[in-house]
Backbone:
């Protein structure tokens, strides 16, 4: 396989370009401190991940910011605490504050000279738009769970991605 055979690169934004773990932790930490939860970052992120996946499966059309707010409440219950609605809403809106990895913007600028760049992500349109701006808006298209109506790993997300990249003039065989 040669990289030159591909004309489009597709990837998720969060965990690849945006440091979602730091973003989630930074947004969760005020509640952790206020609630007196003694669990550390890794444990809270692990609990978060398990609950998030379940919420996305049960409510595939729920806006991601609402998924985050709901997960916040479920994490509180997991630790035997009463959910804090205001903190859950703030957490749900925190994506705009999640930091990019230090090398993301420069790498995207370089790759943009050689490939079509397309994000496939489980977030909502408004949130990923803000993240794309943070990254320099190097993207030819962005496909979100909000647009598709379900969350990855549902195959429909990848089918829509392939369709959309095709509209950019790149066949499935040209996608990496």
Residues:
């Amino acid at each position: 396989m040669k990289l030159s055979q591909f004309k489009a690169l597709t990837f998720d934004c969060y965990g690849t370009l945006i440091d979602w773990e730091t973003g989630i932790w930074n947004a969760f930490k005020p509640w952790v401190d206020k609630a007196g939860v003694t669990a550390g970052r890794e444990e809270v992120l692990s609990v978060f991940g398990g609950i998030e996946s379940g919420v996305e499966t049960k409510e595939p059309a729920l806006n991601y910011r609402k998924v985050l707010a709901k997960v916040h409440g479920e994490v509180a219950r997991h630790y035997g605490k009463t959910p804090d609605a205001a903190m859950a809403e703030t957490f749900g809106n925190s994506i705009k504050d999640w930091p990019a990895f230090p090398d993301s913007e420069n790498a995207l600028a370089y790759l943009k000279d050689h490939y079509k760049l397309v994000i496939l992500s489980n977030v909502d349109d408004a949130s990923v738009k803000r993240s794309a701006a943070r990254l320099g808006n190097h993207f030819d298209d962005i496909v979100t769970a909000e647009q598709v109506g379900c969350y990855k790993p549902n195959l429909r997300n990848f089918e829509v991605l392939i369709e959309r990249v095709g509209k950019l003039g790149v066949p499935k065989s040209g996608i990496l």
User: Anything to note?
Assistant: The chain has a mean pLDDT of 96. The beta strands are 8-11, 116-121, 141-144. Residues 56 and 164 are 23 Å apart (CA to CA). The chain is about 55% helix and 10% strand.
